[in-house]
Amino acid sequence: MVRYTDIKASNTLINDSTAPRVAVFVGGTSGIGQLTIKALVATGASSRIYLIGRKSSQDRAHVFINELQSANPKAEVIWIEGEVSLLADAKRVCEVIKSRESHVDLLFLTTGYAPFGPREETTEGIEITLSLGYFSRMVFVLQLLPLLREAEAARVVSVLGGGLMERPTSIDLDDLAMEKPGSFGPIKSQMLSATMNTATLDKLAADNPGVTFIHSYPGWVDTGNARRGFEPNSWKAWLAWLFLEPLIRIFSFSDEESGQRHLFMSTSAYYGGGGVPWTGKAGVNTFGKLVNGLFLVNYRNDCTLNAGVLSALRERATERIWKHTQDVLEPYL
Ligand SMILES: NC(=O)c1ccc[n+]([C@@H]2O[C@H](COP(=O)([O-])OP(=O)(O)OC[C@H]3O[C@@H](n4cnc5c(N)ncnc54)[C@H](OP(=O)(O)O)[C@@H]3O)[C@@H](O)[C@H]2O)c1
């Protein structure tokens, strides 16, 4: 088990030689991404941070960037506007980054929410929460992989449901777009996104041994995320406000703790051996090994294996998920 005191101690060791020099945050306009950027900038390191977000968040993002620059003038924060639920825009943003950078040390992905309303598609015909939680994230990963491979100890952190995954028998592999009647729902969509994140990152980790992949389950953090999936002023939204949100407030990690925990995931050699040195027992990858790979990280920063389900996924689902992913992403790669 990783103790929170050890996490904070590790984060105090972050400096110009251990901090990500170039970091890309997709979803950093609020919530866990934003908290992690704050924690990174507060280390005083001279990182260059790309903050990607939609136009409606631009004014908020500029206020945030001004706060960051006064907290640490050595950090450079660059705003790139992008409607990241759209894969074409995700690709365009990656092209901007690729035109400016020769390597990327950290790609941190947090977009998405659980949909409590009806199924809603983007203009590209993809259910929006599957796009935010999985497909658009994978455009960023696959587009930026060449730059991640150029970094000394690159890392991809996808925050959603590390360790939570469906058994292959519970997934309709013929309906990974969730189009069949009755197939769609808040838990089902989140679990499918989480399962596809794990299956694909597990495959990419095997093909890219120099990059550390992390799929994090953050526990409860009071970011307003639960509110996003409800239709405004619906009875479900009122029920959530009355019962769910107070519960989340009570049982959530504080903003500070969530930021520190995710900064540790983004920088510590506990995962895969690169980054801020770790002297204790290290975390294990999805093969139970102490080497680089994919790490399924729970809300206490421990590595979960879920070995039985994962090996069934590898045997029966990963290739189908990968094929579907390639078919959907093909125009955007
Ligand atoms: N917070 C929790 O307790 C918790 C628990 C388990 C899992 N998770 C999952 O972990 C991830 C990060 O959570 P979080 O609490 O940090 O999330 P969040 O703050 O609610 O949202 C993260 C990002 O998603 C973007 N986003 C939301 N809807 C969008 C849309 N329709 N189009 C474009 N961008 C959109 C937000 O952009 P804007 O700033 O522009 O709105 C924000 O940058 C999410 O996938 C969440 O479902 C969270």
UniProtKB/TrEMBL annotation:
GO terms for molecular function: oxidoreductase activity. The keyword Oxidoreductase applies. Keywords: Oxidoreductase. Signal peptide: none annotated. InterPro entries: NAD(P)-bd_dom_sf, SDR_fam, Sec_Metab_Biosynth_Oxidored. It comes from the Eukaryota. This is NAD(P)-binding protein. The lineage of its organism: Eukaryota, Fungi, Dikarya, Ascomycota, Pezizomycotina.
